[in-house]
Write the structure tokens for this entry.
Amino acid sequence: MSIPVIDLTAALTPGAARSAEVAAAIRQAAMHTGFFYIRNHGVAAEQVARQFALAAELMAVPESSKQVLSVLNSADMRGYETTGAQTLDANAHPDVKESFQCGMEYPAEHPYALAGYHGYGPSQWPAEVPHAKAQCAQYSAEMLRLSCRLMQLIALSLGLDEHHFDADCIDPMVSLRMIRYPMHPADADERTFGAGAHTDWGAVTILAQDQHGGLEVRLPNGSWAPATPIEGTFVVNLGDMIPRWTNDLYLSTLHRVRNVHSGGQPRYSIPFFFEPHFLARIEALPGTVPAGEQPRYASCTSGEHLVEMYHRTYGVQQAANA
């Protein structure tokens, strides 16, 4: 079994000619791997290249500035995260990576911002990279457009109306993360990873990865398959909200990163994490619970789920109002 490649040609808008065909392909991927590549996705290669260049600029900011803009100084976990700050696999060593994370810039008077909901506060920006805020906003807008279209295709894949999730996509919680993985340590043991084995927390992740590779996906048979970079594609994976929504019909799959193929060079990746708005209800969708059975998961809001995952992974209590 391998990670499928899904072509979005003629499927990028509601009612497009290939929407049903692509939705069927997504259903197969969602049930068997939880991962798939997408090509012909509508995002210009030049824009992706600019974002990788920005990632390198952000990682080159002086350490003193990174410390001031630490994610630990942000209720929304935005800013810089130092190497070893996160441990995605509780049975492994701290992750060998550093990153910069930002989110959508909601106005201070937005009701969710006024309520103090996680994911609606300001990002932190380094003065050394003055164009970062505008460029990340532009890239995030493209990723949000694509995420919302993927949610429409997921709805079709479940036999639902194409617009079933549209309301959940209004004022979403999203995170854009630019990650730098240094060369894998020469003395690394079997519990050392750039990112330990984990599932993502939200609904959909869209990943741009550089040419070096290093991402590995755990297949249903227990083997680990490389998500080898394919030019012009993004890697898409489903997060933990999707099994909750689909009563485990669709998978949220373990994956990990080891930068062992780069010839000693750093590896960069840019994941965009899409989560519905804070109060979106996550509960078993129509048709996903067999007759006579109960849903496998309790109903919750998107915000409640996400805040719980932050607490588990970082071991810190972020302001939630969940």
Summary: The longest helix spans residues 132-157. The chain has one domain: 5-314. The domain at 5-314 is CATH 2.60.120.330 (Jelly Rolls). Residues 286 and 292 are 14 Å apart (CA to CA).
